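Re: nicotinamide-adenine-dinucleotide structure - here you go.
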Amino acid sequence: MSEVAAAPTPTIGFIGLGRMGSPMARLLAEGGHRVLGYDLSPEALAQLAGAGGTAVRSAGEAAAADVVVLMLPDSTVVTAVLRDDAVVSALTPGRIVIDMSSSEPVRTRQLAAELAQRGVHLVDAPVSGGVRGAQTGKLTIMVGGDTEIVDRVEPVLKLLGRPVRAGDVGAGHAVKALNNLMSATHLWVTSEAMVAGQRFGLDPEVMLSVFNGSSGRSGSTDNKWPNFILPGSYDSGFGLRLMLKDMKIATALARAVGVEPVLGDEAVELWSHAADDLAATADHTEVARWIASTALPPSDANTARTEGETA
Ligand code: NAD
């Protein structure tokens, strides 16, 4: 009786070992893959080496793996990495690149066409679920790409969370950006409601309990406010500027297909004001504190209300 040899476990090159990439690379190593990780930060490389991966000295070395995962800030960085000479040489025909960053869908399609000319496949697989989801392998993964190629990388993605097939290449990045535009808009209006309710004398815990059992419920009421804003830690691990980047991707996408993103544009403007005031490293949940800080002091608010009544 002949035995069929099991397919060898693919080696994985992982480029971008930040707040998300670092725990994701660890899970892939724990899942039995040889992980060749690269990041500009020496601390991130040391962390990978301590978590079962192999730190390499260049993106080109990481790109020599069977499957190359990118978890980088944005499309500009993704493009620069994929056009790096050493990466281009390492990506021989048949290789698969998975861009798990939250990138721009139109640029993703352009990159996919560029890679396809050299026989290299691109899958987009951005994620939702935050740093906690990355640490626990419970990310929602929005996957775009050719069905047969996605089939081949699905076992890798399943080590990180729940893959949902969104469509052709670029579809994952599109749905991710649209999700974050909704999420950011929810967080803004939830924060306005929470600040106003507390000013009126309502207990914030009671408000959240009511919202979470009512139609005002969202990820902002059941996760962000109770876990990162009310305790005052503001440490969700998702940067404010990364959120703003995603919102702009979504509004540009809407406009490109003829939809005027009226509320989306307003949300981008509001978040941009907060980004101008807050530190470059600010967590996105800090918008709640910023909104509270821009409210009138209670005495001025009373005066304004009285003037409004007499006008
Ligand atoms: P991060 O800033 O913590 O990590 C990005 C990493 O990329 C850094 O370690 C940086 O040194 C590295 N890097 C930058 N340029 C590089 C280059 N040329 N070569 C190699 N490494 C390079 O960001 P993050 O929070 O991990 O987010 C990564 C992506 O995931 C972003 O697109 C973000 O929008 C998305 N995302 C983040 C979260 C979150 O909760 N943090 C959730 C979902 C999606």
